[in-house]
Task: inverse folding
């Protein structure tokens, strides 16, 4: 009788074939799954992607702008969407937003029609031995010439601002100045480059007042950097950048630039050392010198302590604030910061 069972050799062969097929698996087919947007398992992108998944080999792949940079330096495009399959896949990190163009604020030269292009007179008639040591580099500055305006008494520079409150507490600090030193009314803007309300005020009412009454010689304006906990190190760095720009005669131009950076990039990116020096260079200043000045910490005490005390003793409880003082007043008084109030006070002081 014929045996109906398959020959032993045939059975062994089938078993061997089954084992070989199981060992090969089908991961590659599952990975592609007929989707043309997924990289082929043999492509360099897929190989680099798999290598990057291994903890010991993460450094072999660098993800940027939807591409994989292999260890050999070749760039291969990857699909932005995640892939499905038996194993996890890695989506490239999104590329950072391109930084907006810096240096939009006018450079310090009359040829560029800077609105602050008025003679620089340092600390004016202040005796040299009375100038704070940290501000020695600001004593002479760089004169950018006349504006052609009939208000020849309008200058930019520095002034020692002293405040004494009702309890006898006093503070004195060197503050940037713009306008007529002998004007019948003086204003102090108390501000913070990390303050969003200060940003809007600077580009709105303050700029309008500077144009109409400060640059025409009817009022003087000094700048106090009241850096509180808001903004932290970024705000302090920005404050020092402004005063460091003053060493190159461009404090007021830099205030415009800093608020521009805050609006377009945010204070973390906009007030980074790299961005500050780059923006200064775009303005026509020495960016490396500005960075070195910031890193030296020469004005850190002025920003973090001296100006803060001035603002508080003037009565400022927040930023932006405006204080005013006339010749017949013994101390500074906080007033409404709107343009109309400042205009009325100025006209009254000038007998108009």
Result:
């Amino acid at each position: 009788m014929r045996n109906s069972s398959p020959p032993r050799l045939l059975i062994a062969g089938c078993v061997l074939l089954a084992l070989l097929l199981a060992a090969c698996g089908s991961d590659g087919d599952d990975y592609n799954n007929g989707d043309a947007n997924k990289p082929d398992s043999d492509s360099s992108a897929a190989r680099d992607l798999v290598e990057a998944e291994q903890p010991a080999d993460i450094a072999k792949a660098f993800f940027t702008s939807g591409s994989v940079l292999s260890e050999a330096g070749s760039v291969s495009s990857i699909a932005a969407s995640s892939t499905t399959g038996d194993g996890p896949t890695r989506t490239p990190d999104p590329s950072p937003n391109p930084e907006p163009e810096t240096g939009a604020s006018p450079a310090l030269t009359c040829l560029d029609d800077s609105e602050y292009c008025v003679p620089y007179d340092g600390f004016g008639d202040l005796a040299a031995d009375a100038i704070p040591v940290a501000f020695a580099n600001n004593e002479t500055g760089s004169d950018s010439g006349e504006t052609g305006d009939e208000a020849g008494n309008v200058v930019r520079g520095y002034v020692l601002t002293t405040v004494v409150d009702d309890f006898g507490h006093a503070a004195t600090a060197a503050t940037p100045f713009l306008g007529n030193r002998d004007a019948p009314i003086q204003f102090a803007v108390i501000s913070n480059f990390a303050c969003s309300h200060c940003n809007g005020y600077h580009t709105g009412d303050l700029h309008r007042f500077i144009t109409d009454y400060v640059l025409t010689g009817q009022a003087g304006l000094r700048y106090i950097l009241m850096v509180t906990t808001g903004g932290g190190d970024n705000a302090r760095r920005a404050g020092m950048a402004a005063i460091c720009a003053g060493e190159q005669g461009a404090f007021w131009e830099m205030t415009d630039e800093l608020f521009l950076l805050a609006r377009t990039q945010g204070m973390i990116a906009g007030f980074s050392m790299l961005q500050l020096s780059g923006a200064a260079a775009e303005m026509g200043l020495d960016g490396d010198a500005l960075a070195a000045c910031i890193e030296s910490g020469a004005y850190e005490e002025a920003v973090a302590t001296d100006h803060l005390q001035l603002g508080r003793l003037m009565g400022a409880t927040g930023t932006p604030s405006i204080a005013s003082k006339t010749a017949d007043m013994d101390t500074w008084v906080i007033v409404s910061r709107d343009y109309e109030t400042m205009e009325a006070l100025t006209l009254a002081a000038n007998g108009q």
Notes: The mean pLDDT is 74. The beta strands are 62-64, 67-69, 75-77, 154-164, 170-180, 185-191, 220-225, 321-326, 333-335.
